[in-house]
Each structure stands twice: as structure tokens, then as C-alpha cells.
Amino acid sequence: MDGTPGRVSAAAAVAAGQPVLVNSFGQWRDAARDLLAHKVEPHAVQWVTSKDDADLFSNPVACLDDDEEPAGTGQAGEAPHGDAASTVRVSRELMDMLQTAACCRVPNRWAFLYLVLWRWSQGEKDVISAADQDGAKLHSMVKAVHREEHDMHAYIRFRERREDAGPPRFVAWFEPSHDVLPQVARHFASRMGRVSWMIATPDASVMWDGANLHTTGPLMRGPEDIDDAGEALWLTYYRSIFNPARLNADLLHSHIPSRFWKNLPEGAIVPEMVTQAAAGARKVGQTHSVGQRAGTAIPIAASKAQPQRDAPTSLDQCRRCDLWKNATQAVDGAGPKRARIMLVGEQPGDQEDLAGEPFVGPAGKLLDLAMADAELDRRKVYLTNAVKHFKWEPRGKRRLHKTPAQREVEACSYWLERELRLVGPDVIVAMGSTALKAVTGDAHATLKDAMAEPFMHEGRWIVAIYHPSYVLRVPGDDAKAQAFAAMVAGFRQAVALLSAAPPAA
């Protein structure tokens, strides 16, 4: 087709009544040169690809070849083997437009590009004008390709893989409408340094190893071994900036076309937030911010400046303190509706915040061991925390625990008192100083004094022990063993007190 030994040239294929086979812009360019040199008119050529016409990835860099000759200086119609046919000079502007338009997935793209080139060779220079019918289509194809490149730059979301998974470190999945993967891959290669990454599409995938780009065939989906803490942090931030009172669903979809939502991390939570806004969250969104608006200072407390509202009916709606702003979700207690023993911790940790359940992280595993040694069945006790939202501070990519302030403990006492009324425990095990202060309502209570022996409070036994996280972080094996033994002893005391416990208040 292109003069390569063993292959039929494009002009010879047309003369024999055969189609011209192309799979990349480079192959089309060589075939067009040969056809122009032999003055083959567009209507005489049948262009085909080895696959569907919308697939250019049989050559991984189908649209933009690294060895392209400079546009504007090339002779698109130069006759091979010394043919006397006149050459056709192609301007840089036309060559750039043809090369870009070749990435546009439209029917018969190669035939259309040859028609444009043929008209140019016949002296019709206005073929690249937007006022010309063919020129308008060419401009439209170029614009569509540039728009798809922009959308890939904007809506690709790289996700970090587990450290033991090996390269690439980051992966992304995208479904482009046009063949722009090579250009986009070069864009990210120039901006992400030596960090390895991969972009997978239904037609091809490209990987950057830190120095070179490698292309492979299509993938069904991207890798599943994802461990991206940054994505969880992003979703937390996205929830925090979402204002249901100002929601405009039509505008939201006009800014980001719907075909991108399914591959965006926030796309999984937007429908739920839109539904909540329609179900009444707009009212809540307006209320909590009334006293926080910038403007003229008012001589009364912000809480009193807000209109009177009913108490929140669910924990997810709680805005009694500011911890909800940086937490993924509120973590409610878990256990039987009626339990004789209630365990109260300080607050949910990082894993509890993501899972929405109490004591599922490292501290929860140690708690299970201590309860097992004390022969206390976790399924028969009620587990909860004094504070229901995770309070943390950033350290690199990690979220480190930060002790809640007394005002935050007092704000959350509404929910702890509600749990005490509903569960009605006979014995409360306060794990840590914060839990002890929350259970007794005494801001000056100390864990050291309370651990001496159980005591009665409002008709219930109170047993104070170390929090499991304290056992994990206390230095020294001996100190860890002593703290763990103290926890086990406290659980055994709680079990023994059940027989002596008076009716709950």
C-alpha cells in the first residue's frame, strides 16, 4: 500500500479494484501521497481498516507518530521512485488539522481527509476555511478532538495502588469518545515526573515507567488492588463543601457531562446527596450556617441568632459541634437493643470513620482479645463512644487521632444519654479518661482514681479501665502486658457485678 516491499501500493490497490487498508495517520499519509502522485480521485478510493473504522489503536500511537516529518515542509503528494508527477506542497496549518482530525471517530474519516487533501491539491485553498462545507466539517472534527483531550485532562482520576502491588503506582480508567490517548499520555508524562502510572481505556492502555511510555492492548477495567487514602480524604472534603441549600442538579450535570460521573470517585456519593437535599437536607443546610455568615458583627451569640429548630432526629444530621465537617460520617453504637453491659470508648478512629462501625480497627482487635480472656462475649455487650465523629489532624497522607475537647464531649452527651435510656445497662465500662468524664458528667474525674475500684453512679456500676489504644501505644513490653492485664481484670469485674447490680435508673 505504501511502497514497502511485500505490500501493494495504494494506487496499485485501487487499480486492481481493491480497498486501501489503513490503521493509523502515518499509513494514511503514505497512501495519500501515492494516490495524489497517480492522480487518483477521491470517489475512486475505498478506505478500510483492519477493525471497525472507529478503532485506531492497532497502532498504539495511531494519531500522533513520533517520526512525523515537520508539517508544512513535507510534500504530501511527492511521487515515489522518481515519478514525474508534480508534487503537492501542504501547509503546516492543513497538516496539523488533518493529523488532529484523524483522531475523530466519525464514519469514513479517511475518505473525508483524502477529499480535503485532494481539493487542496487542485488549488482549492478555501477547503480549510470554516465557511466551506468540507472545511466546516474539518474544523468541527478538530474541535471535537481538542475538547476530548481537555475532558481527559480534567476528568481522569488516578487512584493509588497498594504498596506491595508493584508498578504502576497510580492507575486510571477512562472511556474516551475519540482516539486521544497518545496525546493525553504525553501530557501526563511531562507533568508527573518519575512516578509510574497507567491509563486504561476500552481500546488500549498506556503505562509510564518514569522514563518511557509503553502501550498495550485494551483492558476490561483498571486494576482492583487499590488502597488510596487520598481518595477517602477527597470524598470527605467533597461532602463538606456540598451545600444542599444551593443545589442545582441541572447545572451540576451541565458542568460535568453525565458520561464522566460513573468513573469519578464523587460520582458514587452525589446521587445520595442530591436525594438527601430533596428529602429535606436543604432546610438543615440553611440553618447551621446562619450564624457563621461573614458580615456585620452582632452583639449576641451565633447560636441564639439562628432560628429555633427541633433537635436532630438522627445522628447523621447532628451539627451540635464542628467535628462533622471533617469526618466521613457519624459512627453510632452497636450491639443488642437491651444489654446489661455497655462499653464506652473515646471516639471512632480512622478505620471506624470510614467503615461507620465502632471498634473495627487495631484497637478493636485488641479489645476482642481482652474480652475473650475475660470470657465476655462481644455479641452480648453494647459498644459505643463518648464522641461520635472522628477528630483528626493530617500528617502527610495519614489522619492522626486528636483528643476531643471538653465542649465536644458535652455536645455529644445528647447522644450518649439517649443510648443509656434505650439500652438500659446495669454496668458501664468506661475505657479511658474521656469516656469516664462523659459517663459521670464530671470534667475533673481522673482515670487513676476511678480505676481503684468500681463505683455507683445514678443507679449503675461504673468500671474504669484503660482504652485499648493506650495499650497499643504505651512503650515497653512489660508496660503493655500490665495495661492489658488491667483491661482484662476490669472486664471480669464488670461480669461479676452483674449479679450484684441493682435495677438500672
Radius of gyration: 34 Å
**Domain count:** 4
Query: Superfamily at the CATH H level of the largest domain?
Result: Uracil-DNA glycosylase-like domain
Helix content: 25-40%
- The tally of strands reads 14
- By secondary-structure content and strand pairing, the structural class works out as alpha/beta
CATH architecture of the largest domain: 3-Layer(aba) Sandwich
Protein name: Type-4 uracil-DNA glycosylase
Region (Disordered): 63-85
Family: Belongs to the uracil-DNA glycosylase (UDG) superfamily. Type 4 (UDGa) family.
Keywords: 4Fe-4S, DNA damage, DNA repair, Hydrolase, Iron, Iron-sulfur, Metal-binding
Q: What are the SSEs and their pairings?
A:
Blueprint: H1 10-15, E1 20-21, H2 25-37, E2 47-48, H3 92-101, H4 109-121, H5 133-155, E3 159-160, E4 170-173, H6 181-189, E5 197-200, E6 205-208, E7 213-216, H7 229-241, H8 249-255, H9 258-261, H10 270-287, H11 302-305, E8 341-345, H12 350-355, H13 362-373, E9 382-385, E10 392-395, E11 398-401, H14 406-423, E12 427-431, H15 433-440, H16 447-450, E13 455-457, E14 460-465, H17 468-473, H18 477-497
Parallel strand pairs: 1-2, 4-5, 8-9, 8-12, 12-14
Antiparallel strand pairs: 3-4, 5-6, 6-7, 10-11, 13-14
Organism: Massilia soli
Pfam family, one: DUF4130
Keywords: 4Fe-4S, DNA damage, DNA repair, Hydrolase, Iron, Iron-sulfur, Metal-binding
